[in-house]
Amino acid sequence: MTAPDRLAFQGASNGGMLAGVVLTRRPELWRAAVCTAPKLDLMRVARDPVGAAATLPEYGNPGDPADAAVLISYSPYHNVRPGTAYPAVLLEAGANDPRCPAWHARKFAARLQAATTSGHPVLLRVWPGAGHGATAWTAVVAQQTDWLAFVMRELGLRPATA
User: Fold this and answer.
1) Domain containing 89 — which CATH number?
2) Which GO biological-process labels does this protein carry (predicted)?
């Protein structure tokens, strides 16, 4: 058993979108959330050539009224509620990500920062030169360390001593 102030989650790519969904639907359940390389504005994914090719068949077409109703009900960006106490959030994106462009994280961070009443940080990290994930091991380690340190800080965890 646990309590919300001791619980965090992380998701990347489609998992980053899922993290955004969970974060906006049940913010009271978490102390911290990490969304890595997420798609968060599902009504605008078709505007990116790579995004359109990859997401229209999978998620639906925002130009179709039936699909749009489903997309807007699920889209994390469209479900941020002003005056809500959101947990601490770290959004990470690659500056050169063709699948999940950094504008998703930037736009969501701005909306979440304006909406939250919790006082917890909403942070944005755009990794220069990165695509849809790091390829060099040094970059992988840096990215993993970054979000793990964020979660540890927010949960009040300390590294074990030898």
Assistant:
1) 3.40.50.1820
2) proteolysis
